[in-house]
Amino acid sequence: FDIETTYIKELGRAVLYIWQFQIDKICTVIGRTWKEFLDFHKRLKDAVSDALIVTYIHNASYEFQFLRSLFDLSTEDVMVIKSRRVLKFTVAPFEFRCSYLQSNMSLAAFTRKFDVKHQKLSGDDFDYRKYRFSDTELTDRELEYCVNDVRGLVEAIKAEMARDNDNL
What we know:
Layout: E1 2-8, E2 13-23, E3 27-31, H1 34-48, E4 53-57, H2 60-67, E5 78-82, E6 85-91, E7 94-98, H3 99-103, H4 107-113, H5 140-163
Parallel strand pairs: 4-7
Antiparallel strand pairs: 1-2, 2-3, 5-6, 6-7
Helix pairs in contact: 4-5
């Protein structure tokens, strides 16, 4: 899972303009609003009943700041290693785990280390100063940049698990 945001200097806060959710190597789900994410969450929760879906976020501490305002979380739902450093949190059916803290490297380094098909794309081509909103039409290259993050993360996690003879 990953989100992309625009920082609005005048508001002093960031706003979501796209979210991506990679389901194994099967498909990528994309949404542009938090309402769409909440609808996706509800549908998935209804589909899997009581099962937990292990979901990796590269730098879960950032996404947590947004998701905590959308869900009623208790202290038992969140594991931190220190203030503002979230290791994992649960919003059933998701158990969000921080792949940044697990790998101890940037997403670019993580995807490069495991030589995955969908490498983290260069941020040099992606103007972070550009204001993007949920209704902003994204170019094919901007969409590719967003989608590669979740595809590459899944591939790197799976490669690491294969190397370590690990399974969920």
